[in-house]
Amino acid sequence: LGLAMRFEPGKGVTPGVRRDFFDFTGAVIAETFREAIVEPVAIDFSDSRAAVLEIGTRLGATQTVGYALWSLAWLAADRRDAVALHHHLAEARRHGDPWYDGGAGIDFLAHSAEMHLLVDEPADALVAIVECERRSAGTGYDWPALSVRARHEATYGDPGRARALLDELEPIGPVRDRP
After folding, report:
1. pTM for this one?
2. What is the residue-wise DSSP string for the chain?
3. Which pLDDT tens digit goes with each residue over 135-149?
């Protein structure tokens, strides 16, 4: 974090890197570990997702790889590419140690469900929602499960149930997820 705070968006990173949060973070990681990899590598540091994936793989940093794959799954869902989505979600989950067992795992399941909804896979979304609800039960961190359940109900289920879930979500969810 200290290193990340010394970088300014758009400065000190390879030109051409997109400036959204993941890409900026990826560029910082790429710059940090560029010197740590002593053997010759063919990494295009202008593509921070690919760089983070390559660096994480070479260093055995499964958490870094998992997060990069999670980001690639979002991109696949945005492109409505179900095949790539399934591949990246499975690989992200395979690289889920240690983040999957905590709150990030709950977020991953909720996001997975949202991604499945984007590619019109309500049954796969429901599997992720049920697991998200199970994992978040009693933790006090249930807004991700409530939010994605509401979206699923509004799109494929009972709109009345969706409205009730949104009412339940309103006092506890982040502002971006409130009705």
Report:
1. 0.71
2. -HHHHH-BTTBSS-TT---SHHHHHHHHHHHHHTTT--S-----TTSHHHHHHHHHHHHT-HHHHHHHHHHHHHHHHHTT-HHHHHHHHHHHHHT-TTGGGSHHHHHHHHHHHHHHHHTT-HHHHHHHHHHHHHHHTTTT--HHHHHHHHHHHHHHS-HHHHHHHHHHHTTTS-GGG--
3. 999 998 989 999 999
